Amino acid sequence: MKPKLILCLALVLSKNLVFASSMEIHVLPKYSDVPVSVQVTDADFGKHFTVFLKDIGIDSDEFVGAQLEVSSEDDQVASCPLEKKWTTNGVLFEFTVSAAYVQASKFRVSILAHRGKQPMPAFTAYWFYLRDFATNNAPVARQTSSSEVPPEIIKALPKRVQELHPGITSDEVWKQLNLGAYEHSLGNDDELRPDRYRLDWNHAIEFTFAETTNDFTVEKTADGKSSFYKDNRKLIQATLYKNGLEVCRSGK
Asked: Helix or strand or coil: residue 252?
């Protein structure tokens, strides 16, 4: 699905304040058609951020909340809610982060779905890495809730990823990465990239598969009593990310 289509859908849903499902949207400096604007200025000990959530049909800030996740390259230092300032045109958030933590820290603002004063079980959220607006480093990663892979497995992933070869099946990829047990429980890390998965709070992995005429087939179990979908796609490349930046990729 194209970015603009997703954003338009989010705006329509937000305006009506009734969401069919939850949605996470990664905000980047190049996107001008999102209802979030970011200004960054130098502060005494770091960078001062002013984030404005424009009025998209929000009649109250009761169902709007923001979270700041302060992180170093390897550790999550703190996670805290931010004070919101309701204005006639939207909701304003301000915070200052030390320059040492700008690279890996994230901001996220969410709008809880509701009908009148009644909350609904869904939301629309907008988030970004602080570095995307404070530096010229490239993005990207989208964070969603998911099961997390143990640290000992993640520690071994760089070597395992580099040892992957093109042409092996999806099932073989998961097995060789020692991620077979997590194949169906990991959350998608980017709605625009269906084969990108969040491994833990700051690691993600993305697969590129060759398109075939029979990507998925229905197979029978050994006892013939049930069926399952088999992924027949062949690997082109796998890429491991940390804090949204590439760590390594598989060979060609």
From this structure: coil
Residue 7 placed within a domain:
yes
DSSP annotation of 136 reads -
Domain that holds residue 53: 3-134
* 142 within domain boundaries: no
Distance CA 97, CA 140 (A): 20
**Residue at 128 is within a domain:** yes
Dump pLDDT digits (tens) for 42-53: 888 889 999 999
**Tokens representing 100?**
């040492």
Report yes or no: 57 and 15 within 8 Å, Cβ to Cβ. Answer: yes
CA 219 vs CA 5, 15, 231: distances in Å: 35, 44, 10
Tokens of 145: 């809730």
- Quick one: pLDDT band at residue 166, thresholds 50, 70, 90? very high
Predicted confidence at residue 221, as pLDDT, reads 65
* Helix, coil or strand: residue 230: strand
What CATH number corresponds to the domain at position 89? 2.60.40
For residues 64 and 178, membership in a common domain is answered with: no
In what helix (H) or strand (E) does residue 176 lie, and over which residues does it extend?
helix 170-176
Q: What angle do CA 62, 37, 24 make, to 5 degrees?
A: 65
Structure tokens at 154: 């993640």
Full-model pTM? 0.51
Q: Which are the contacts of 6, defined by CB distance < 8 A and separation ≥ 6?
A: 23, 25, 191, 192
